[in-house]
Write a structure and sequence with these properties.
43% of the residues lie in helices and 12% in strands. By secondary structure, it is of the alpha/beta class. The chain starts with 21 loop residues before the first strand and ends with a helix.
Length: 261
Amino acid sequence: MIGRRVGRSPRPEPSRDAGPRALTSDFWYTLAYVTAPERRRLEAGRVRIWADAMVRAGIDRPRALKEVGRLIAAGRAAEARGSTPPIDAQAAALSRRLGLRRPLRGGEIGEALDRNLLRRTVRVAPGAKRALGRLRRDGILLGIVSNVLFETADGARALLDRLDLRSPFDGLYLSAEHPWAKPRPQPFRMILRELGAAPDRSAHIGDLRWDVDGARRAGLTPWLYTGLYRFESPRPAIPRRAGAPLVRIRRWDEVPAKFGA
């Protein structure tokens, strides 16, 4: 099930003029970000939580740390193929590989990973809330499409609530709850179905090639957000394509004008 709706005031009816009338957005480094030091703390916490769980299961720490590296690499490879295994599935697969008599407790690990995430200082992209408010007042349908690999969907929702970023949106797709992730087109198709929007009247904004490729495959107009590139290294390589050049968005303040808002 796509994200639960929350109570909102009625929105205006979308106008009938040309151009996209729905916007979906990536989360990390599009709507929100962490600084480089905070990102290092977030990633170190993830490694520690997984390694500690393995040590409690009887695995020596050097091997546990090596297994965490393998786990992260396997998760990234799965994500590149368009799926993000939830934490309990990752824990079960790791338990089988290690031959543990008592499997790792995915629920406990997931809760610890979520606490680690929510301890971090996460900032909203400059101008994003103002732009989203303008889009909503103009009747633009809004949704989030986010890959969730290292924490749980509940943790992602809690972070959105803490940042006050759920209320502007009409739909929420978190890949940990579904078989598909970006760059596959299914996440975009499912969120548009939730919004009741047509792909050829919709745009997606995100900072990665997966956002661009997935949106294109689903029939949406891709917009590449570059405003937080300074926190990402290296910058994503986006191949040139025949036809209209890829639109690059440097500031959220530019987005409402794309809709005439």
